[in-house]
Every structure is written in structure tokens, then in C-alpha cells.
Amino acid sequence: MKSKKIVKVCNAILILFLLSSVLIGILLAYIPSRMTKKHTNEIAKLYLDDMNYNILDFNNKYGDKIKEINLSSRYGHIIPVKYICNDNTYDNSTIVLVHWHETNHTVMFPLAEMFLNNGYNVVLYDQRAHGDNTAKTVTFGYYEKDDLEDVIDYVKSQMSKNNTIGVLGQSMGASTIGNYLGSSHAAENIDFAIMESPFSSMYSEIKWNIETAVKVKIPISYFLGLGSIANNLVFGYEFDEVSIIKSIENSSTPTMVLHSKADRVCPYNMGEDLYNFIPHNEKRLITFQSANHVEAFFTEADSYKKAVLDFVSYYTEE
Nearest CA to 236 among 108, 139, 141? Predict the structure, then answer.
């Protein structure tokens, strides 16, 4: 009798474990991919408030120069673009700025202002499922790279001559750029790239966040495997396919990586790894010591601005 009870208990535990495993796998696929306009707008405002940056001042200064465009992506969703021209001309060196996860294009206003003050044109847009972008899911750079390509094509179409185009992204925006850099489109259409606080792959970023959030030992790789299977079934790609390291190995674009040793969202070694995998010598690694995630522009302002503007001016000189 006791042995039968033990078998029943063991079977119940096994079934519970399997059901919970499936549920966790589904949640690992679903939660990171879902975003709302309300949430992204709130997080963007909170960040800018924390950095004491006034959006109204930016809009008062540049509002009459902002051209708003709704691009139709190759997948049918709308990519809202803000195109800001210095001297009322498209024929300037142009920087495309790519924001990070859970925010929208407004978090890039401080960087936009830096570039505009130095004579560059600036293009901002909302990534998939963020702000006013009408895509339904976030893919951590997998499909976002295609939105970036569509934006670059639009920028090129507005220029009457072959002007310099560069891209700068933060966190997930940097990883979107990293995914894009492995393409022939990037090699043919952009002149330089700046990746700030990137993660090296979707798998490693989710794993890192689980490890730092959960203080007890759990079989993370097992659950991530289930999450990857669920993600593939629902969204058409596995976690391992979003590998910025694999993409950047094919890059020929001059690239600068910015990362802080104090970063607790995307750890410093991820940026260092990406730098090491860039297969050419037209690259730079800038290390900050104490800046929190994507805050170096504010907390280590002098060294940040000098590094970025020196790099950009080097590749935009006529």
C-alpha cells in the first residue's frame, strides 16, 4: 500500500513539474516579447525625469525642424520616424538613433541634441511594439534589424547625393544594430556604427537577468530551452538565433562599442565579447567605470561626448 502511495505522489510531482515547466517556457517566450504603448511611454518619461532632461525644451528648440513620417514596413506594420534636419536640408551627415527595450524614441533626445548641435541631421524612430510602432511583438533585434534597414533605405532616398550615414543604438537598440551589421545592406549603406551597452545574444541576456533576479538554484538552461521552443512555435525563431556575436563576425563597418563596468543590465563582458568578435581593425572599445546602464551620457558626460563625437567626426569628414 505504501509503495502505491509513493508511486502516486511521485507521478503527481512529475506531472506538476512538467506542467510548471511548460508554463514557465511559455512565459519566457511571451513576457519579453509583449509591450504596450502606455508602458513604453511611461518608462521613457521616468528615465528622462530621472536624468533631469526636459523634453519640452527639446521640442521648443527643434519642434519646427521635425518631419514626422509613418513608414510602412516590409511586414505591414507602421514605423513612426522623426527626421530632424539642420539647415533645412537632407544632404548632411546623418545619425540614426535606436532606442532601448521598454522605451520609445524620446529617450534618444539627449543624444539627438548633441548631434544636432554639432551640425548633423538626426533620425529617430520607435522600435517594434514600442511607442507608436504598430508591430505586435518585440524580438530583441531579430526582426528589428529589418525595421532599421527600412529606415536606412528611407534616409538614403531623401538624400540627393551620397552623404555619410551612421547608426547609434543603446542596449537592445545596440543589439538591433549588431544584428543589422552582419548584412550586406549594412556594408553597402552605412559608414559607421556605435553600440552602447549591448547584449551579446537574446539567450545570454535572458539567462543573465534570471540569474541576477532568482537567488535560488534552478535549472535555468532547461527552462530557457523550453522557452526557446515556445518562442519558435509562436514567433518563428529560437533564442539562439538572436546572436549578435554571430552577426557581427560578418561585419565590415567601422564600429565603436561603449560599455560600463558598472552595468548591471547588460554586463560589461558582453560588450567586450562583441568588440573582440568584430573581424576588422576599424573598431574602438570605450570603457566607463561607474555609469549605470545607458546613463554614461549623463554621469560621465565629458568622456562620453568626446569619444562619440571624435569617432563620428573621423568618419564624416569630407
Answer: 139
